[in-house]
Amino acid sequence: ENPKPDLVHQEINKCSTNLDAFLSNSFHAGAALTCLVLGKAYAVLDDAQTAESHLYRGLELLEQDAVSLVKNELRIELIDLVLFSGDASKKGYATDLLRSAENELLDSGWHMLRVSLLYARYYWQAGHKETAFKYMVYCLKISEEESFEPWMEKQKKWVIPIMFELYAMNSFTSYINIL
User: Fold this and answer.
1) Alpha-carbon distance 163 to 179, whole Å?
2) pTM, whole model, 2 decimals?
3) Fewer CB within 10 Å: C terminus or N terminus of the chain?
4) Rg of the chain's alpha carbons, rounded to an integer?
């Protein structure tokens, strides 16, 4: 359930003030993290263009910094927003970003789960079921090991068809029952 738009706008105003403070003090990691929050907030308001702008800006702020967890989170949010926006002109950029994120996320179970979910959704929507299954099985393994059930529940809108087919193939049935 999404928060009320009035509350989101109030928080956006606070974040904008924080962003200005971080930028004026050349604290790029703080500014980038604030851009991540702003991107997510605008996405909640269905303002994809402004959300995308903040996520791009956050990545640009960290181009020279080694704050990999913040970079990864920015990348993942941007990929999720752009890859499934329906804008074919941005699809190549989003898939390149997804590949680079996959190559750099070996130290974070959370980010590996998120990237694998993006791949599973991407391949499922493209009609490549076997590849989608491969990524979804990987997601289920990570989720089970790391106890990410609440996050997986939030993905129900689009993962149910994939999990239904995996269940029918007797793959991960006990864990799918938990979800």
Assistant:
1) 10
2) 0.77
3) N
4) 17
